[in-house]
Structure formats: C-alpha cells, structure tokens
Amino acid sequence: MNFIAIDRVLLAFFHELQSYFVLAGRTFLRIFRRPFYYREFAVQFDKLGFSSLFICSLTGLFSGMVMALQSLIQLKPFAATSYVGGMVAVTMIKELGPVLAALMVAGRVGSAITAELGTMVVTEQVDAMRVEGTDIIKRLVVPRLKAMLIALPLLTIVTDVVSVFGGYIMSAGYGINPVMYISGLPQFMVFQDLIEGVAKPAVFGIIIAITGCYVGLNTKGGAEGVGAAAKQAVVLSSVMILVCDFFMAKIFVVFRG
Q: Disulfide-capable partner of 188 in 30, 51, 86, 195 (CB 3.0 to 4.6 Å)?
C-alpha cells in the first residue's frame, strides 16, 4: 500500500515537472513571434522592475554595510582593512547581490504574478480569452518573462552598486578613504565575476516568471486557492533560486579552471 502511495506521489511530481518545462519551452518558442504586445510588456516592466527598485536598493545598502562591518572586524587584527572594499564587492557581485535581489523580487513580484493570473483563472477570464482564440502563453506569459529577463539583471546591478556604496559608508567610519576602498576592488575581482553577477539574475528572472505564471495558471479553489497559490509560488521560486545558484556557481568554478 505504501508503494502505491509513493508511486502516486512520484507520478504527480513528474507530471507537474513535465508541465512546468512544457510551459517554459512554449514560452521561449513564442518570444520572437508576432504579435509582441509591446504595451503589455511596458506595463509588466514597470510593475515588475521599477516598482521593485526601492526594496532592492534598501536590501543592497544594508547588506553592503553589514558585509563591510563584519569584514572590518575580521581584518582589523591583521592590519588588512584596506581589503574590505574588494571583499564586499566580490561577495555582493558574485553571490549575495544576485541571490538577495532575486529573493526580494520573488517575494514581491512572484506572488503578484501568481495572484493576478490566479484571479483571472478563477474568474474565468482566461477561459474567455481562450474562447476568443487568444494565445494565453503569448498574451500573458511571454510579456512577463521578457520583463523579468531585463528587469532583474538591472535591479541586481543597482543592488550591487548600492551595496558597494553602503560598504564604503561603513568603512569610512573606520578611517578608510575612498582611494583605499576602491583600490581593493581589482585585487579580488576578475572580469568573469562580472559576467557571473549578470548571468545569475537572468536565470533567476526566468525561474521567477515561469514559476509565477505556471502556478497562477493552474490555480484552483476560488479566492482561498489564489492565496495558497501565491504562497506556493514564492516558496518554489525561492528554493529553486537557491538550488540553481549552487549549480551555477559550480559551473563557473569549472570554467574558471
């Protein structure tokens, strides 16, 4: 009996996984096909990108300050506080910046995408669009994916810049001048670190958009189901971001040799 239950769980899991990747594949195939829905893309870019600018900037500022404070405490006994700028930059740009920005956006934007599409599903607006012959993926999913592919890397860059500035604010209180702080950056970073810092949020943006759309379009159970779907989308996106971050870090380490 237990084997039957396990078999059902595995079948349900792999069915959901297959449906998820089918949606992702169909979405990517439609990115460069007409119509492009420029207006919808602009609206989504504003909602998903500009609206998240403040929370990402705030996250970057205090993350950079905390990183600088902890680095100063650790480096001060060795008289190596001049390296704090490089440590803050390499940590934030390679790892914390992309991950923290993605988690903040997943919590704010992922739930919004799911709730919006879930509400359209339970109120039968999606069914009405299908009856009219509208391509649901092209109309609802593709603009959100395009917006996230552009918005999240830009938000991550803002987060990184603000975090480095926040690190300097904290370092200035310990007698580190701007020249000393900036000179530590090239000692810890290489060009590949910048590529890694932009590639990761692009992948994270795909995860957030596809997960939010998938869960939203499969919402059931009325208003209560919309709330449960939004929570599920945030949890799934966050877990997938952390798992994907590990594997991408391993891939970049291999390429670095």
A: 86
